[in-house]
Structures are given as structure tokens and as C-alpha cells.
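User: My collaborator and I are trying to settle a disagreement about how two of our proteins should look. Neither of us wants to argue from intuition anymore, so we agreed to look at predicted structures for both before our next call. Could you fold the first one, then the second, and keep them clearly separated?

Assistant: That sounds like a sensible way to settle it. I'll keep them separate. The first protein:
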Amino acid sequence: MRYGAPGIIAKSCPSLRARASVIEADQTQVTPEIARYLMSMRLPDADSIRADELSEKARLGTLTEAETAELDSYLHIGSLLGVLQERAGRLLKNNDSLSRQ
């Protein structure tokens, strides 16, 4: 399961916009090593497969209430990871630009 453009997602979802604001407001210095680690994070294969199965059921309109909650959890985790990776990517790009100067 791929999570696409987190900036676009965050703009369209109020709860994600709030999470993104909290992450962006955090002034903690993220090192390039931490940024690379964040960029490498992915859902385990079994979870990715399960999220894809639930997404397909959602498209078909056959999700149970429990499955809806499960899919929401995967989507929230993916969205949060996307926001973190967006910040990490910017840091790595800026760090790379500075090292070339």
C-alpha cells in the first residue's frame, strides 16, 4: 500500500492537517541518520496485503464495522508516516544542498 502525497492528503483531511501542524511545529533537530531511517520505514508485507484487501472490500462496499475500524487504523498510520517522511525528505534535500555549497 502506497500513501501518495502526504501534503495533499493533509490539506484535505482536518485531523491530518492537525497532525502535520504538530509535527511541523516540533523544533527538535532531526539528524540525517534519523531522516534516512524514517524514509526507509514501511508497513510489514502482511499488513500491506491486509490493508489492500480491506481497501478492495471498501471499494466494493462490503466492509464490516470492525474492518472499517481496522482500515482506518492502517490509513491513519500510513498518513502519519507520510507526514514524517515528507519532513525527513525535505531535511535530506536541504542537507544535500548545503553539503554541495
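The second protein, kept apart from the first:
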Amino acid sequence: MNPKAAPKVLKILLDENQDEKYVKGLLDKIGVNCNITEMISTFEKEGKLYLATDWLEARIKEGNQMVEVHNSFLKIQIDNGKSPEAILASNNLYDTRVIGK
């Protein structure tokens, strides 16, 4: 798959209710070889941001400092009922206007 087309391809797969493990596997293979902002937006618009949890966590571990990456990861943690206090206390890369909503 062409990494530049990945967000569009994954959107189609999500629309077609493709197996979540398959989608997550493709996302992991794509890694950073795509437009990260577009990829996050695709999953968020489809209401399936949670599928990108491992992918987002990998970007953070790689040292990615994009606000969108950190905001999305925190949204997932909050939606899953996980206590994000430790992350919030140690992370200044998220946007308080987005996470504070």
C-alpha cells in the first residue's frame, strides 16, 4: 500500500467494517510513513480512534512531539476510563483546550 494513500484506504476498510485486527495490523505496518494528522483524523471521524491506540503509543515512544498524537492518545485513555493524571502531569505536549473539553 502506498503510505500516502493509507488514510483513504483505511477509511474504506473502516467503512466496510473490516476486521479490526486486520486494520490495526496495516496501521502498524504503515508506521510513520503516512500523513499522521490525516490518519488520526480518519480514525477520529469514523469513531474508531481506539483502534489507533498502539500506533499512537508507538509514535510517542519514538519521540513524536505532534500535539495531535498526544491529544489523541489522551482522548483514548480518558474514553477507556483510565486515569490520565500521570500522563497529564508528565506530558506538556497536549493541548489543554482539546483535552479539557
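Some points you might bring to the call about the second protein. The CA atoms of residues 2 and 13 lie 15 Å apart. The chain has a mean pLDDT of 90.
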